[in-house]
Structure formats: structure tokens, C-alpha cells
Design a protein that fits this description.
Mean pLDDT: 96
Structural class: alpha/beta
Shape: globular
Number of helices: 12
Enzyme class: oxidoreductase
Distance between the termini: 29 Å
EC number: 1.14.13.113
Strand content: 25-35%
Largest sheet: 7 strands, mixed
Low-confidence stretches: none
Strand order of the largest sheet: 5-4-13-14-15-12-16
Helix content: 25-40%
GO molecular function: FAD binding; FAD-dependent urate hydroxylase activity; urate oxidase activity
InterPro entries: FAD-bd (IPR002938), FAD-dep_Monooxygenase_BioMet (IPR050493), FAD/NAD-bd_sf (IPR036188), HpxO (IPR047712)
Protein name: FAD-dependent urate hydroxylase
Radius of gyration: 21 Å
Order of helices and strands: EHEEHHEEHEHEEEEEHEEEEHHEEEHHHH
Number of strands: 18
């Protein structure tokens, strides 16, 4: 049995590795000639970590992950501590720790685990069609690939999604812009073992440690979409949006490298329940494009990969039946994650400032119990719990 995987990002490679682990032949086709990850880093929460462990990358992941032991929120103007607590109760209750990692390094880890020379780069899919006992993908260069099933892991702009759904989908602007990148750790900005977040005015500035003595940082600002801003103006833009914020925020802005800082307008897609049509299945952002507000986009794609492989391996009523089992196990889970992220997005980014100010007040009395309980609930919904 052979699977054609369209997309060589986190989801596509996780699926390819998972299916290969279960004894399937796989072919991976990636549209770009060289993968350049969108975003500087990613927080892999314990549900995602367990999926990568299951895929055989436990030791490799630990080499990439930063030592994130605490979580803290600070008031934006004077930098006063609103709350700070250990992540250890979460780790002990779910049986694994989170790992913030640089996206490029995670991508390389997945590529190496699959085998770089087996990935077909520069292959942009033009059309797909099913026949009696298989599925065929035709690429823009005229190449044709055939297999028993096809996994569409071609991202939020998926060209295969309309085939599965029977209609186009619209991306929804979430209302804010995110700047992100990597800087050398400076403990006068934030502790090296802590997820640090400054909040105020519906904005946030956050730092997470990754391997290599680096912080992953991001700035969020509610803004109209389509502003004429890019890397050339990043320091000026951030200095303006965060004028008057605490000294560590100003120091971070001064430290960033505009050439390696990304600016992303954040979108999601209204969740849908159909992830499968015949021998074709959606996976990752192609099936559930979400905002990054609960850190579950990449983790959900890893979960998809594990569930898909188990479904194909353990069900004997044919490919179509196995993919329906995958859909049944994933549709409600990923819908829930998209909507949870959207709800958190609105609270964090001042969609209703009265609600956001109430959240700020709640943080001042937060012991960690409420925050960790919400994380635990999300994590424990994964397939390897």
C-alpha cells in the first residue's frame, strides 16, 4: 500500500514518518524548492511531544527544546509581576514536558528522520483524481504520482481542500499582527527558564527559551490588515506600538534583528467536520487552520499523523473505511482546538476591552491552577493519553 503526501511541512512529514513506521510506502511532494518555515519557533506542548516520541524522535526533540520551567505574566508599563508559577504540576499530571523549539530545526529534524533525498521538492500539485483502486496527483511540471491514498498536508492555502469539501473556504482575519523571531538570551529581559509575557492595551510581548541560548520572541498588536509594514520598518513600528512599555520590552526591541524578524497577519478558517473524501484526507492546517493563541496548530498536525497511521494500520475494511475512522477521531477534536484558540485570541487581543481588562485583573490573583487546568484539558484530548 502506498500513500501520496502533498506537503513537506510539519504535518506532511509527521504523517509520512508515521505511515512509514507502520510499514506503508510513502512519497512526499513539496511545492517549494526549499522549505523556509513560517515563523521563527513553535511551542510543542506535551500532546505534540508524545506524538514525536511515538514517531521515534524523543532524543532528537530533547536536544532542540528549551528549558521552560515557569510561566509568568507582567504588567506592561512598569513590568510588575502579575503572576508567576511553575509548570511542574502540569508536567507531572500529563507525563511529559513542553518543548519550545526553533521551527527551522524542527523541520530539519523531521526531514532527516524521513530522509531528505526521498522528498520531491518543487512539485506543485495541479489536480487530483480518484479511480477504482487508487488516487492520482498531477503536478504543474506534468509529473504524475499514483497511490492507494492521498494526504493533503498543503497548508492553510490548500489547493486540495476544495476537492474534499466541494467548495472554497475563506480565511478569516483574526484581528491582529504577530512579529516573531529569535534573539540571544538576556536575563535582564527575562529569565532563561521561563515563558515570560507582558500584557496591556490588548497587546502582548512574549518570550520562550529554545536550545542554543536563544529566546523565541513574539509581539502581538490588534491592527487592520494590509498595512504597509515590513522588515524595513520593524523597529520603528514596534517602538511606536509599545511606546511607554516596561524597560525589558524596550531592550528586546533594541536587540531584535529586522532581517530575521517575521511579520504575520494572523488568520484562521471556520472549522468544518469533513476531513475526508474517498481516498483523500486533509491533515494539519489544510484541515484545521487555527490562530496560534493556544499553541496547538503544529501539535494538532502531529496528532493527525499518529491517528491517521493507526487508523490505516488497524482497520482492514479498506482505505476509504480507514480514512473515515481517522475523520471520526479527529473532526471534533480539531474543531474544538480552532474554537478554543479563537476564544483565547479575542480575550488576549482586546476584541472587547472590558473582557480583556477583566482577564488582566484575574491574572493578579492567578496561582497557576486555572491556567494549568485549561492547558491540561487541551493536552489530555490528544490521541496518546
Amino acid at each position: 500500500m502506498k500513500a501520496i503526501i502533498i506537503g513537506g511541512g510539519i504535518g506532511g512529514l509527521s504523517a509520512a514518518i508515521a505511515l512509514k513506521r507502520c510499514g506503508m510506502a510513502t512519497e512526499v511532494y513539496e511545492a517549494v524548492k526549499e522549505i523556509k518555515p513560517v515563523g521563527a519557533a513553535i511551542s510543542i506542548w506535551p500532546n505534540g511531544v508524545k506524538c514525536l516520541n511515538w514517531l521515534g524522535m524523543k532524543d532528537s526533540l530533547q536536544q532542540l527544546g528549551g528549558p521552560m520551567e515557569y510561566m509568568a505574566y507582567y504588567e506592561h508599563l512598569r513590568g510588575q509581576t502579575m503572576t508567576r508559577f511553575s509548570l511542574d504540576p502540569l508536567i507531572q499530571s500529563v507525563g511529559e514536558r513542553p518543548y519550545p523549539v526553533a521551527r527551522a530545526e524542527l523541520q530539519d529534524m523531521l526531514i532527516d528522520a524521513y530522509r531528505r533525498e526521498e522528498i520531491h521538492f518543487g512539485k506543485r500539485v495541479m489536480s487530483i483524481e480518484e479511480f477504482d483502486d487508487g488516487v492520482r496527483a498531477t503536478f504543474e511540471d506534468g509529473q504524475i504520482a499514483e497511490g492507494d491514498l492521498l494526504i493533503a498536508a498543503d497548508g492553510t492555502h490548500s489547493v486540495i481542500r476544495p476537492y474534499v469539501l466541494g467548495h472554497q473556504t475563506e480565511r478569516r482575519y483574526a484581528g491582529y499582527v504577530n512579529w516573531n523571531g529569535l534573539v540571544e538570551i538576556d536575563e535582564s529581559i527575562a529569565p532563561a527558564n521561563q515563558w515570560t509575557t507582558f500584557v496591556g492595551e490588548g497587546k502582548r510581548v512574549s518570550l520562550m527559551p529554545v536550545a542554543g541560548n536563544r529566546f523565541y520572541f513574539f509581539f502581538d498588536v490588534p491592527l487592520p490588515k494590509g498595512l504597509a509594514e515590513d522588515r524595513a520598518t520593524v523597529k520603528t513600528d514596534l517602538s511606536r506600538y509599545f511606546s511607554g512599555w516596561a524597560a525589558p520590552v524596550q531592550k528586546l526591541i533594541a536587540a531584535i534583528n529586522p532581517e530575521t524578524t517575521n511579520r504575520i497577519e494572523i488568520h484562521d478558517i471556520e472549522p468544518f467536520m469533513q476531513l475526508v473524501r474517498g481516498r483523500v484526507a486533509l491533515l494539519g492546517d489544510a484541515g484545521h487552520s487555527t490562530t496560534p493563541d493556544i499553541g496547538q496548530g503544529g501539535c494538532a498536525a502531529m496528532e493527525d499523523a499518529v491517528v491517521l497511521a493507526i487508523a490505516v494500520q488497524t482497520n482492514s475494511l479498506g482505505v476509504k473505511d480507514a480514512l473515515l475512522r481517522y475523520q471520526e477521531k479527529r473532526a471534533y477534536r480539531v474543531k474544538d482546538l480552532v474554537l478554543k484558540a479563537r476564544k483565547r485570541c479575542d480575550v488576549t487581543h482586546g476584541k472587547d476591552m472590558a473582557v480583556t481588562h477583566s482577564w488582566y485583573e484575574e491574572l493578579k490573583s492567578e496561582t497557576g491552577e486555572r491556567v494549568l487546568s485549561g492547558m491540561r484539558e487541551t493536552i489530555m484530548g490528544g490521541p496518546l493519553e
